[in-house]
Amino acid sequence: MAAWSIVTSFAGGTLGREDLIVSGRRGLYATALMIVLASIGLWTALLTHDFSLKFVASGTSSNMPKVYIFTSFWGGQAGSLLFWSLILALYSVAAVWSAKNTARELAPWAAGTLSAVLLFFIAVTCFKANPFERLAFVPADGRGMNPQLQNPGMAIHPPNLYLGYVATTVPFAFAIAALVTRKLDASWLVLVRRWSIISWFFLTIGIVLGMWWAYVELGWSGYWAWDPVENSSFLPWLTGTAFLHSIMIQEKRGMLRKWNVVLVVVTFLLSIFGTFITRSGIIESVHSFAQSPVGSWFAAFFLLSTGATIYLVATRLKDLEAKAELESMVSREAAFLYNNLVLVGIAFSVLWGTIFPILSEWVRGSKITVGPPFFNTVNIPLGLLLLALTGVGPLIAWRKASTSNLKRQFAAPVFLGLFAGSALIALGMRNGHAIVAYVLAAFVAGTIMQEFYKGIGARRSIHGESLPVAAIRLVARNRRRYGGYIVHAGIVILFAAFAGLAFKKDHDIALKAGQAAELVDPLGHRWRFVSQGVSTSETLNRFVTAVGLEVFRDGERVGIMASEKRQHFDSNKQPQFEPSTEVAIKSSAKMDLYIVLAGVDGETANLLISFNPLVIWVWIGGVVMALGGLIVMWPQAERRRAPGGYVATLAPARELASVS
Amino acid sequence: MQRRDFVTSTVLAGAALVSSSVHAQQAPGAGAQVSNLGPMDQAAAKTVRRAPKPGATKSLSDEDRDALERQIRCQCGCTLDVYICRTTDFSCQVSPAMHRDIISLVEGGYSGQEIIDAFVDTYGERALMAPTREGFNLAAYVLPFAAIGAGAVGLIWFLRGMQRRAVPATSRTTPSSPSATDDEMARLQDAIRRDD
User: Fold this and answer.
1) What ipTM was reported for this prediction?
2) Which of A238, A258, A286 to substitute to test the interface with B, most B CBs within 10 Å?
3) Count of CB atoms within 10 A of residue A349's CB?
């Protein structure tokens, strides 16, 4: 049915025959319906413990909590590919249905492209990773789910990531449609932008949830390890973010058509490339998805998609010529391009570092590791540059910024940044990267506050509104602009939290029952940990080894904290998987206390005790970014504006600032 | 008692709960098993020991030693560094062995770089968490910045070109005095107020 949709949609688009276009569209709807039915079938098999299916037997057991049986749909290779198809099918229906009247010329080509991508995933699911494959026998029980996946974060992290990854397909499909029809008009912009924001929104949530899961579940005392699979999710986020900035230039000035099409295409291709990395095993990863036979299929699909889009872009370059010119190198459009350069540069450096082990093996024949020390060396300076540009962009006027405009706009944020830096140095901070990060964070925070201050002030003076009403209406009536600033606020919070890791302290200690350890945290507080001994117990599907610590801070009792190792077993009490970690975490605004039971030696518990400054702000920053993204993507009815009949030529800086 | 012993004792302590049979997926070959983090080669540890230097004293503080361990990769296949693996992954026997070697070298008076060199001698470059900054590996460090630099040059060239094309057009359409009058500003404010 997907193949039918491809043929009829493309034929309908080429011949301009409405009957074929409608048939192609209905073919897509029918494909989606069948995928929904297949998904219901798999969920039914999981929830009814149909262990005759290899997928059910290998990923669940009868003693697992129901919620994780439900989420095991995307916990294994085959199910996750069907889940991908399900999301893509539903997205495709929504995209084609909404575009059938608003973008009539693009819709059939988009439908055909979406069907082609869908056909690929269906083919992989059917021929390489079939979740309905039956075993030769029916086991009494299944193996169960990897205990580290039995976590609320892991239950919702993959769906969000998939929602983000898959949503990149829709802008890609409309980019292909636009390239084929040579129409990159306003309807294309609206559709592509909407779906790109949806993709960005879910990728953001998915990435932050993944960080949270790694932090609370894996016991590494960190949330980002630059693992190839983590990098794979970060890559389309970076190029998608670049696109969401550069599309504003096309909207405002009609510029950068070629660049925007390239970014849309690259974002999709990176999501496929990331999936290839995740599932091929070509690069070593801590993610256990990493070895499967679908890698070659994804590699072929990636190459085919890349080749097709390169051909289309190359043959339509003239149709993508920009219509506007740049008036100044110091303008918002130029600032957005600098921002694009850094975002794409970071994407390149992450991609380069991720694939460098393969290149090294090809060139030198020796295997190397490209781990966090490399990525931190390369990406910290680039990240700081990006943070600076996050503040610079909104301060510069469109078209051309005058010197007086720049002085007035930059004065307060720059002062705030320098003040923050001076204060931190005076307080004894000496870590160069951290100081620069906080200076820039304060600068960007200053730009955001300044924009809100001006906007709210203007509304209050014009409409006489109270402060809260003015603030709410300011955001509600300019959702893209102020939602974007809220996203920037989330970025500032994230960078401030990342910089906190510069002061992280880890301690590796061993305690017998009754023994105590005294440690000093990065803020100078004295902590005392008294071991309550090691205990063992059995719960639903696991054998638990735990250590309890009575914790004191500066002589004041904080409470008991317990870290566990869990040995999961199946319904026959056969051990399943390796022991997993349950970390004890005590969070506060300033710092997390993070305790891991690393092992037990007789009666002695080996412990990793970490003081992780500002980690809670990573999650808060993620929430703020998601909130900003939600505001940006929330549908806003276009108000009918009466033609003003007035055109004034304005000096870009002083006067505009006074009315906005 | 080492970690492996602990795993064993954990299983034995739960003997009423857990039989001693080993799951098939955990024993693909001698010395190899599958952890929650992927395939694990428990036999990967090699001895990295050197005779102590004459009159050797401990060359690194515990904190510096831990920092050094973050530069050395555990060889079990987990992709983690020695410090994180040994303080996290319960079942790995490789990172504790590498940790013991590092302690031995630190107590033997060897510097951080000498310890790293000793591990590279034994395991090859895979002992490191990041490529060395020499030879072909330099490309890993240089190319991202070179690409961004080249991109910046290209971008400035592109923007200047656009700017040059814009100058004549701007000169045709921009009045000699671009500033709006007070009256015009007042009318614009009125228009904005009506629109809101």
Assistant:
1) 0.83
2) A286
3) 23
